[in-house]
Amino acid sequence: FRIDSGEAQGEARDAQSSCFAADLKAALLSHPRTISPKYFYDERGSRLFDRICELPEYYPTRTELAILAAHAGEIASHMGPRAEVVEFGAGSLRKVRLLLEAMQEPARYLPIDISGEHLARCAAELQQEYPGLDVQPVVADYTRRLLLPAPLPGAGRRVGFFPGSTIGNFTPEEARHFLATAAQVLRGGALLLGADMVKDPDILHAAYNDSQGVTAAFNLNLLARANRELGTGFDLGLFWHSAFYNAPKSRIEMHLVSRKNQRIEWDGECFEIGEGETLHTENSYKFTIEGLRALAGQAGFRPGPVWMDAGRRFCVHWLHA
Ligand code: AVI
Asked: Which of 118, 167, 183, 201 is close enough to 46 for a disulfide, judged by CB 3.0 to 4.6 Å?
């Protein structure tokens, strides 16, 4: 599962493209039309997401960073000496740096991500900064399988790190499945889990409808990616970005809304999309402290301390595996 060569990265990309084609086709044929948000993250999508994290309205990244910075010493003491950090979906290596700085002799860092090139670049940068750390990037879809190398001899705890509230992009079923699998592979260690909290819908609405339109570009990139990789021929001008808070379900929903009746001819098939019909591209669930602790408990974790910002916007949970 470790991808070192350009050839292997190319194979991983081809495999992902064929899943994308099959899932997009299934989405276009179903009602309602839904596709996994994991397809946002090609090279361009990952860069757009990095820009979202810098937006004034998008509070989760900077709030979580501040929580980690404020409590890094305490978190590191829970980790113990020579711990190994496994990061699921290693987008911004800025967050793990805060942990590595505070940890006692971190032994190994295993960032797992689906976006191979982005990951390789970020991991190489980190390795340069921490020459004594064993950095091993793993290109994989951690929602499908969690295969990890054996712990290093003499290594301390294995601590999973899942920041950014990516857990909120899973369906409740996927979240339960991911947590149960993580609890198994981290047994004896712990999971450090970041989650966005239920809050004033106006704050949430602004975070997903930024004034610069970066989130809209990120959403539309799903169709742009399909055009680039699969030759779908979507006209991006014929779709609106829509993001709103669904309070009963405690989630932001992102959709691409068709501006008119249109027909997409692709791969010998014809797909009709009516005016106002949507492709549902993402859910971003928001959590209460108790709700998340209960979910983690059901998955086999023993909930431990929780750190939050003063505004109760974001929380970071220590979960014993
Ligand atoms: C990665 N994930 C936690 C982000 C979120 O907030 O759900 C993705 C995102 N979608 C729109 N803006 C950011």
From this structure: 118
What separation in Å is there between the alpha carbon of 152 and the centre of ligand 1?
33
Q: Which amino acid is located at 194 in the chain?
A: G
Q: Do β-strands 314-320 and 108-113 pair in parallel, antiparallel, or remain unpaired?
A: unpaired
User: pLDDT tens digit string along 117-145?
Assistant: 778 888 999 999 999 999 999 888 888 76
Strand partners, 284: 252
pLDDT digits (tens, 9 = 90+) for 68-107: 999 999 999 999 999 999 999 876 678 999 999 999 999 9
Whole-prediction pTM: 0.93
> Which of 53, 143, 169 best tests ligand 1's pocket when mutated (most atoms within 8 Å of CB)?
169
For residue 153, whether the previous peptide bond is cis, meaning omega lies within 30 degrees of 0, is no
Half-sphere exposure of 149 (CA within 13 A, CB side): 20
Pocket of ligand 1 contains residue 215 by CB under 6 Å:
yes
pLDDT tens digit sequence for 159-216:
999 999 999 999 999 999 999 999 999 999 999 999 999 999 999 999 999 999 999 9
Q: How far apart are CA 126 and CA 122, in angstroms?
A: 6
Q: How far apart are CA 35 and CA 27, in angstroms?
A: 6
**Residue 177 burial (C-beta neighbours within 10 Å; 0-12, 13-18, 19+):** middle
- If you search the block for the tokens 């990095």, which residue do you land on? 50
Question: Cα(192) to centroid of ligand 1, in Å?
Answer: 18
How many Å apart are CA 305 and CA 301, to the nearest integer? 12
> 10 Å Cβ neighbour count for 242?
17
- Buried b / exposed e over 247-275, threshold 16 CB at 10 Å, is eeebbbbbbbebeeebebebeeeebebee
Beta bridge partners, 176, equal none
- In terms of Cα–Cα distance, which of 274, 311, 307 is closest to 289? 307
Closest CA to 122 of 196, 18, 49, 216: 49
